[in-house]
Amino acid sequence: MSGAVAHDDHHDHHGPPKGWQRWLYSTNHKDIGTMYLFFALFMLFFGGAMAMYIRAELFMPGIQLASPDFYNNMVTDHALVMVFGMVMPAAAGMANWMIPMMIGAPDMALPRLNNLSFWLLPAAALMLILSILAPYIFPDGGTPVNTGWTLLPPLSVQAGMGMDFTIFAVHLLGVSSILASINIVTTILNMRAPGMTMLKMPLFVWAWFFTGLLLIAIMPVLAGAVTMLLFDRHFGTSFFDAAGGGDPILFQHLFWFFGHPEVYVLLLPSIGVLGLIIPTFSRKPLFGYKPLVGGMAFLATLGMVVWAHHQYTIGMSLGATNYFMIGTILISIPVGLMLLNFIFTMWRGSLTFETPMLFGIAIILMFSFAGVTGVMLAVVPADMQYHDTMFVVAHFHYALIPGAVFGLYAGVFYWLPKWTGHMYDERLGKIFFWWTTISFNITFFPQHFSGLAGMPRRIVDYSIQYTEFNVISSIGGFMFGLSHLLFLYIIFKTIRGGAKAPAKPWEGSQIGTTGLEWTLPSPPPFHSFTEAPVVK
Amino acid sequence: MMDKRDDEKLRKANLRVAIILGIIALLGVLYTIIYLPRVMSGGMGG
User: Fold this and answer.
1) Chain A residue closest in CA terms to B36
2) Cβ contacts of residue B16 below 8 Å, gap of 6+?
3) A3 vs B: CB within 8 A
4) What are the residues whose beta carbons fall under 8 Å from the beta carbon of A189, sequence distance 6 or more?
5) Considering only CA atoms, which of A367, A1, A266, A390 is closest in space to residue B9?
6) Of A4, A191, A238, the CB nearest to B44
7) Candidate from A6, A190, A245 with C-beta closest to B42
């Protein structure tokens, strides 16, 4: 179906409701998108504060600030907050804002479900905060959640009350993600304007189509796994207890069946953003649109069947390890194809280097680097050495910060004029880009070397031979954290005022997309399309 | 603009897709909890 529904007459002639009701009861995709984005921004600083603590603790060998359990609690919650609380909501916020406008829909397919998806998030955040506080505010709080984001038993079965709050938080986050994904996939399938065929959709819409399907496939597995964990903790079952006939390895398989595709859930929306930014600022149509769509489908599918490369050290059969090794290395094919397509889009283009484009180019370079270390980690005998070292930490931060977070920053700068109606300060945007990119590399590049030298991850103390790497890393980390105050300033400055943004704020706006988002004024009206647009 | 009948048809189509996707998600949870522990470990012992 490719029709678009007209508005209910009742809503045609009024603006948004006033006051808090506008936000609490909102069914408007742009308002809900804004709430997602602000929630993600808050969580960025919440998770960032934990990262600052981690880097402060690792600044010098020895235990400086708090107990080892608290350190591991911060490592755990930093990951959970950044993955579930920051990157996913930010990407969902962009999807909410942009997908209906791109495909010419008046709103999301299920607006009330959209409201519920968002409002589950603050409840989940509260649960995460309680999980940190539980050992200190409840008399029998037990030990902090010290398992890492993988929540592996038997440690997670023995952890204190905070683990129960973590499990409830994961439940709420999972339900929110599944509902949001159902909504997005339904919107893409059913709400496209007449003439907006699937193969005319902007790459960002395709990216979210695959992300939504992936989430619907993997989130239930995590929800099931943590429910079983809850049962093992409180109701006498032994799903993961070898003494009762269970198997802790089962949890690892379930977690990583979710956890590895989750990486692509975080990456794909940013690849979609790149698919708009690179052609816009190269002033050339996207090179290889169909192969890119196919590449994303291949990536999403292959990403679901290689999970056990996170578990080589558990002792799998030779056949299984070979399968997971070869499958993992094959992933470099669709990823390489995508990056090459972006490079060919730039080839002989008329390039300009506004902040979103700078982030776009940085992503291609630094994400490729993560790809190289990823192939190293995929090789079984090599992984036996790298496993559980800082090398892995360096690898996944190179994958996720450029691959996902910088993609989101690029998207924020690209769409901020459309969202707010004001141009952001380009000079400050560029300062932010260089500041974050340089400090990010100072933070994580040395961790490759400390990891290769044998420094284990998730341990509060380290031998003195790793001191120099950690001092450099911590200084970079503090610079990286500080740069985000500038990000905050740029965003609020742009919201409050600045040069008026035209409907097409970029010279190459219309070249960069096959969607309808630039046909609307900046900022777009409360109800985007009063009549279904027709795409020729 | 679409008339009310088309609007209703679209609403039903949206619901249909959402319910199918919701059932897939629910089956995922049930498969994980009921089937996988049986084939991959001792299951609900203890």
Assistant:
1) A250
2) none
3) yes
4) A1, B17
5) A1
6) A238
7) A245
Shortest alpha-carbon distance between residue B26 and chain A (Å): 7
Interface check A241 vs B, CB under 8 A: yes
DSSP letter for each residue of A277-293: HHHHHHTSPPTTHHHHH
Instruction: Count interface pairs A-B at CB distance under 8 A.
Output: 117
Q: Which of A503, A532, A515 is nearest to A107 (CA)?
A: A532
Per-domain residue ranges of chain A = 24-517
Q: What is the CA radius of gyration of chain A?
A: 23
Tokens of A511: 């070249």
| A130/A166 Cα distance (integer angstroms) | 8
pLDDT on residue A438: 98
Is the pLDDT assigned to residue B46 strictly greater than 70? no
Helix (H) or strand (E) holding A237: none
Give the residue from chain A lying closest to B34, CA to CA.
A224
Which residues neighbour A176 within 8 Å (Cβ) at sequence distance 6 or greater? A117, A118, A120, A121, A124
What integer pLDDT is reported at residue A13 of this predicted model?
54
Quote the pLDDT of residue A4.
43
Question: What is the spatial distance between Cα B23 and Cα A193, in angstroms, rounded to a whole number?
Answer: 27
Whole-number percent of chain B with pLDDT over 70: 74
In chain B, what residues touch A247 (CB-CB under 8 Å)?
Answer: 40-42
A111 and A536 in contact (C-beta within 8 Å)?
Answer: no
Q: Which residues of chain A have pLDDT under 70?
A: 1-14
Topology annotation, domain A24-517: Cytochrome C Oxidase; Chain A (1.20.210)
User: Which residues, 6 or more positions from B39, have their beta carbon under 8 angstroms from its beta carbon?
Assistant: none
Q: Which residues of A touch B42 (CB under 8 A)?
A: 238, 244-247
How many angstroms away from the CA of B22 is the closest CA of chain A? 7
Residue A435 contacts residue A29 (beta carbons within 8 Å): no
- The band of B2, judged by pLDDT with boundaries at 50, 70 and 90, is low
Separation of first and last alpha carbons in chain A: 16
Q: What is the pLDDT of residue B7?
A: 84
Angle at A104 between CA A101 and CA A110, to 5 degrees: 80
Burial of A152 (0-12, 13-18, 19+ CB in 10 A): middle
Q: Which token pair is A228?
A: 């079983």
Restricting to A residues 18-77, those with a Cβ less than 8 Å away from any Cβ of B are none
CA distances to A63, A449, B16 from A57, in Å:
7, 19, 52
State the DSSP H helix or E strand holding residue A143, giving kind and residue range, or none if neither. Answer: none
Confidence of residue B3 (pLDDT cuts 50, 70, 90): low
CB contact under 8 Å between A238 and B14, yes or no, is: no
- Amino acid identity at A182: I
